[in-house]
Amino acid sequence: MDATGQQEQHTGSAGGDLYGVLLYYKYAEVPDAAALAAFYEAHCRSLALVGRVRVGPDGVNATLGGQMNALEKHIAEMSSNDLFVGTDFKLASCDDPVDERVARECGFTSLSVRVVKELVTLCCNPALAPPEISSAGRHLSAAEFHSVLQNVAGTSLNAVASAEKKEVVVLDARNVYETRIGKFNVPNAKTLDPEIRQYSDLPSWIDKHAEQLHGKSILMYCTGGIRCEMASAYIRSKGEGFENVFQLYGGIQRYLEQFPDGGYFEGKNFVFDHRISVGSLKENILGACLICDSSFDDYSSRCRCSHCRMLVLVCPTCQDSTEEYACELCQKNGKEPCQLSTGQDCKIQRGLSESFEKPSISYHNVTSKVSWSDGKVASN
Which residues are in the Rhodanese domain (predicted)? Predict the structure, then answer.
């Protein structure tokens, strides 16, 4: 059930006038994160790329936007270094950013390159050591992931082993505002939505619901794959009965490319760029307005909970009637809508691996080439 090789990359065929978004990450040992970040700063600016790059001692996480030919040049440059061997560069063409407010909030009006201590903060307690990324769950390609789901749903024509014939649970590693508008729906399979505000809340949810995972074959998924790496390693670190963890390689993005009709994925895939979400050919609406419960899945208005600042879905009619919102999680805690104070910070509380803070770093005397790696490459 391992991924059987690099999936097709969307490079080398796009027109120069098209706009695109590139998403990739790579866990690997980075001997000099500052030098690599300096290279990114100079190289991406030379190509007029915008977006967010995070470089740490454990690897790189990048979401970039720009002209397709420039993004393809970037991929070619990064692929020339051993550090990025096997990296899944997910490149998609799309419309140019038209909503300045959304583009600015998503970090798609400028370039932000930062050096971080770790790519993904799974646990907010610094005293706890993160799990070893080498213990992450086994990768399944989109086709393999779909085949297992077919077998679980009873629609497979082939006798594909259902994740070693154990009971399968499908675990969403994303946050609740993402799962509101899209998720996997598999007949005969138990699907688990942790309903968390931020990624660092996931370990405590796993601890509290360990009995639902123990002894099962766990199929995990997220937007592009990076959150499953650390989360699957955390589950497997719990020992006996938690060994059978599998993750969707390339995330929902690769799955929808492989199955444009949506396959077993319902609704839209929330993304952290100006596109906001990406759907399948089904064009079905899974989300609902927080106020009136009508079908609605458009986050372009950027409405947020008055308490926790998390994105909420509010239809235009209800936006006209109120500016006070309490998300479902705050409501569960007994909080009511309250009026936003003037000038209150409206930055979304993300806490996600695919999200990034805004400040940019600057470097001087940057050379055109730097040595990034001493040859040690972690498996991805």
Answer: 164-264
Decide the pairing of beta strands 138-140 and 245-248.
parallel
Query: How many residues does the structure list for the chain?
Result: 380
- Same domain membership, residue 145 and residue 86: no
Which DSSP symbol is given to 189? S
Residues 144 and 111 in one domain: no
How many DSSP H helices and E strands does the chain contain? Answer: 11, 13
The amino acid that residue 372 corresponds to is W
Q: Give the catalytic positions in this structure.
A: 222
Residue 246 β-bridge partners: 138, 219
Q: What is the pLDDT of residues 94-147, one digit of tens each?
A: 988 878 888 888 888 999 999 999 888 786 565 567 788 889 999 999 999 999
Task: List the beta bridge partners of residue 311.
Answer: 304
Work out the widest C-alpha separation in the chain, in whole angstroms. 61
Residues 247, 307: one domain? Answer: no
Q: Which residue has the higher pLDDT, 364 or 21?
A: 21
The two structure tokens encoding residue 345: 């910070």
* Closest to 217 measured CA to CA, from 241, 184, 237: 241
215, part of any domain? yes
CATH of the domain at 253: 3.40.250.10
- Would you say the pTM of this structure is higher than 0.90? no
Backbone angles phi, psi at 223, to 5 degrees: -65, -55
| CA nearest to 27, candidates 113, 88, 106, 111 | 88
In this predicted model, what pLDDT tens digit does every residue of 224-279 receive, in sequence order?
Answer: 999 999 999 999 999 999 999 999 999 999 999 999 999 999 999 999 999 999 99
Cβ–Cβ < 8 Å for 254, 248: yes
Sheet containing strand 111-115, strands side by side? 90-94, 19-27, 59-67, 50-56, 111-115
Q: Where are the alpha helices (DSSP H) in 12-141?
A: 33-46, 68-79, 100-105
